[in-house]
Amino acid sequence: MTSIIGPASYQFFGIFPAAILSFILPVVGIGLFAYIMARRLAPLVRAAPDYRMDRIGQRIIRLITIWLGQIRQPRYMLAGVLHIVIFAGFLILSIRSVSLVIIGLSDGFVLPGFGGWLGDVYNFLKDYAATFVLIACIVAGIRRGIFKPARYAVPEKYGKDHTAEAVFVLGIIGTLMISESLFEASELAFAYQQTGEWHFVAPLSLVWLFTHMLTGASLNFLQGLHIFSYFLHDLTFFFFLCFLPLGKHFHVITSIFNVFFMRLDKGKIKPVRYGVSDEQLDDLESFGVKKLEDFTWKHMLDFYSCADCGRCSDQCPANAVGRPLSPRFITIKARDLIFKNYPLSGEIYKSKMLVEDIYTEDEIWSCTTCGACEEECPLAIEYINKIVDLRRGMVDEGLVPQSLQKPLKALEKRGNPYGKMEKKRADWALEKEFKAEYPIKDLAKESADTLYFVDSITSYDDNIQEIARRTAMILNRAGVDFGILGKDEKDSGNEVLRFGEEMLYQDLKAQNTEAILATGVKQIVTADPHAYNALKNDYTGLPPVRHISQVVAEKITTGVLSLKPCLHPEKTYVYHDPCYLGRHNGIYEDPRQALDAIDGLTRVEMEKSRDRSFCCGGGGLMLFYEPEEETRMGVLRVNMAAEAGANVIVTACPFCLVNIQDAIKVAGKEGEMEALDFTELIARHLA
């Protein structure tokens, strides 16, 4: 032999052409893969519609940054870096895998354009890619199989964990890296023995290492190893391709589509059914998600795309306090149900009511809709819309928690969850001294450029009404011409919508929209992030909406507002990001900018801040709902503030203020710590 025989020319036992096997393997592999994918697409075809073909340019950018750029992976540094290495290696080596399939039919095949310097550069890169991928697989296997991070654990009630599958897949990937490198190294070692000349390979790469190890091997051994490693790679490659859609590693295939079709607008809730207008809702026979096929095809794709990394549940505040909710298993249980109801062969099984089959009522009601799970997911899996849709279905079936029935009835009757008279909505403005100094316009009688939308908790909760007065004071001092709706204002409906009472929400939205548009105001300001989110994202056709922190930051920058030096410079302040101001609407810097404008104020940051802020527990109608939990979210948050060295927690949300004030008492930190609303702190320091 003067040169090694490639798989396309090799004959087993001198009579059977290896090229036949090279042809059979991809034909069978691709055919089986196509069949499996056809079965996996069946539930998506039968699912509810979903509109995801808008803003293609923006979707391409998300695809480049989130899927290709893997920007969310390093939020968990070690696991993230390992994943990036494996992912990048897969992308690089995919070209090599395709060419290897064809090499089995045509010796020496080179992809068009890879015959010159580009091929040399590619070979250099792919040799290092294979090396680093193998190292990453070894480290990941040790980490997953021996150290077992807590977020991968699966409670017994949810079934078995997926450690064995994860390690098995890492082994498959490692086999692909080794076999590809051996295939090339055996050829290089063969050539060295024949000519005595070294071909350049990437130093210290797997190919380099194997080539040096094989220099003393016989030519027959190298020939056999060359053919063996080729077919090992080919067989492993097509086995892996068909194995992916059978479990959690389906995300290797679906993730690119899942990220492309991801939700672009935070803070918004999907309509009850795409293609059905608000006016047509009465014509629907059923609301929300009750059985598997009621989910949209995108949400089905979510179930397929979960990597079971546990990041969502690790960041979920409901999971942290021991509520019966883990976002990870919302997805995994649904995927398992799809696999069960849509088997690879045989009949499709009829779906049951989901809250009786795989979910529990408490599990679905435990979510605060804070969005931490979605922010963390590296594959853009959605949870809030699924939770809301499941709640819509439960409400439609009359499965409403007892503690929520009273506030919902009050909202229907009085437009607020407290059941108080509409005419008392503006009573906060009647406090004698305040009224004398800061008279508030009633937009039913007077006109103004700006509407201050107060919302229910600030209007009716005696302990929170001070936020309304401080907001009015700030607007007045900032020279803003504003007024309120008074008795014409209804609850914004942010919580009502997210608790699945769709028709009640539609009624509240319609009444507020009519009242607001009738005033002719040019902008809306609110101090309640929940109202801000609803008016900005859920309503349509309204003037621009701003949060009071945005107004304050702007007026400080322009010099309209000036602040006195800190009244208590000995204290240390920390800002708590409300979920509906931060994660859902991206307002992080304005409140901090305003606080930092107070000379002498010492501000620190909690470890969980900005887009990783920890929910206080007040999202949805949680102020009225009492779930089973081991501790309060607010208590954990107070402890985080204490660990950061703060003794004053500043927030910009009335829901957060209520929960954090209560949590300070429950945590036994009265006298040590205090909670202030943003408006109160700013009002105290107005020059």
Q: What is the tally of helical segments?
A: 28
Mean pLDDT: 94
Query: How does the major sheet shape up?
Result: 5 strands, parallel
- Strand order across the largest sheet: 3-5-4-6-7
Q: DSSP strand (E) fraction? A: 5-15%
Count of folded domains: 4
What share of the residues lie within helices?
Answer: 40-55%
Give me the count of strands: 11
Describe the model:
The chain is 52% helix and 5% strand. It has a five-stranded parallel β-sheet, with helices on both faces. The protein has a four-stranded parallel β-sheet with strand order 9-8-10-11, sandwiched between helices. Strands 1-2 form a two-stranded antiparallel ribbon. The N and C termini lie far apart (93 Å). It has 28 helices and eleven strands. The chain is mostly helical. The chain folds into four domains: 15-46 and 285-397, Fumarate Reductase Iron-sulfur Protein, Chain B, domain 2 (Orthogonal Bundle), CATH 1.10.1060; 55-177 and 191-205 and 230-244, no CATH class; 415-557, Rossmann fold; 562-685, Rossmann fold (3-Layer(aba) Sandwich). The mean pLDDT is 94. Helix 27 links the parallel strand 10 and strand 11. It has helices at residues 18-46, 56-68, 77-103, 117-147, 163-195, 206-213, 219-243, 251-260, 297-305, 311-315, 317-320, 327-341, 354-357, 361-365, 372-376, 384-396, 402-414, 432-437, 456-460, 465-477, 494-498, 502-519, 529-538, 548-557, 589-596, 633-643, 654-666, 678-684, and strands spanning 11-12, 16-17, 441-442, 450-452, 482-484, 523-526, 545-547, 572-576, 602-604, 648-651, 674-677.
